[in-house]
């Protein structure tokens, strides 16, 4: 079975065509600047030169048409015609309270996705446009929706409730939802497999550390808590996002300093985090270079702050689960930043968490990096959200 995985952003689209018989990625690509001048599609297929299409793409339907044309192109493609695509799996950020698992696309699902736009307007709207475009172009191909929030649907009420007036939850759905769920689910299953253990016997803390970042407590295969909340702004410090702050700061910025709501939203989402503290960049590679090579004090502070927040959260989730068996680092920073992994577990030896600095000299590959004496295992596990989406799609169809 061949599954096409689609991940639509506001002006971009990522895709992979995966042969689920052997989990081989047949083709992968990126469409950028949809609806903007300079639209470009870049496709990579093993054994072939990179295929680039620079042509105006006015909307997502136009972009997906170009994707399908690229996949069936006689010289640069990988399949003869669209009938070889057995199913399409769509990443959707927010599934609200209704969907704690993936679902096949139908009218009821599409109507509910529209209701969820208010919860994630920047993400769900492009996701819906991508699904509608695929439905037009591939009317007879079954499609599935895989939600970023779904894995966190098993959180107990005391973990996802906010201490606000209860009617705000009942009437408006204001609660913690959590995100990055597809990644957290994939790496928690993968580390259990690598350890030769049943995931139902493990207490796992998964650290998805990229420009956006979140941690999840996975107890006996189920998410019981996660750091991102009502929106992806909550939780640990991130590249440009503030993470958790005193909510009264927002009131102070508006009432005392005269910022508008839009300006505060822009500050918290785009000008804070590692960028805001360091004044250098939101890219951790730039921060490390400034801190260690240029002796930039604010860059050092940004890294120290980041490590501290992750460390505290690891301790909190060990408490929430009554212990921890394994810690997983994944995503761009988690998989590649050697110093960050060390900084995030430094001082946690009292919990039986000991990283091996020699083993830890690894980037982008599945490997245990804890000391042989460490009671808690530490793993680097490259995430693969596209494969997880494809697996969920196949499972639904079966």
TrEMBL record:
UniProt-annotated binding residues for substrate: 91
Where does this protein hold ATP? 14, 208-212, 283-285, 332-336
Which reaction is the catalytic activity of this chain? Answer: acetate + ATP = acetyl phosphate + ADP
Q: Which InterPro entries match?
A: Ac/propionate_kinase, Aliphatic_acid_kin_short-chain, Aliphatic_acid_kinase_CS, ATPase_NBD
Instruction: Return the annotated site residues (Transition state stabilizer).
Output: 180, 241
List UniProt keywords, sorted A-Z.
Answer: ATP-binding, Cytoplasm, Kinase, Magnesium, Metal-binding, Nucleotide-binding, Transferase
User: What Gene3D superfamilies does this protein map onto?
Assistant: 3.30.420.40
Listed pathway(s): Metabolic intermediate biosynthesis; acetyl-CoA biosynthesis; acetyl-CoA from acetate: step 1/2
Compartments (UniProt record)? Cytoplasm
Cofactor stoichiometry and binding remark: Mg(2+). Can also accept Mn(2+).
Residues annotated as binding Mg(2+):
7, 385
> What are the annotated GO cellular component locations?
cytoplasm
Q: Which residues form the active site?
A: 148
Its main subcellular localisation, reduced to a broad class, is cytoplasm
What biological processes does GO assign it? acetate metabolic process; acetyl-CoA biosynthetic process
Pfam families for the chain:
Acetate_kinase
Q: Which NCBIfam families match?
A: ackA
Q: How does it assemble?
A: Homodimer.
Describe the task this protein carries out: Catalyzes the formation of acetyl phosphate from acetate and ATP. Can also catalyze the reverse reaction.
Q: Which family does it belong to?
A: Belongs to the acetokinase family.
The protein depicted here goes by the name Acetate kinase
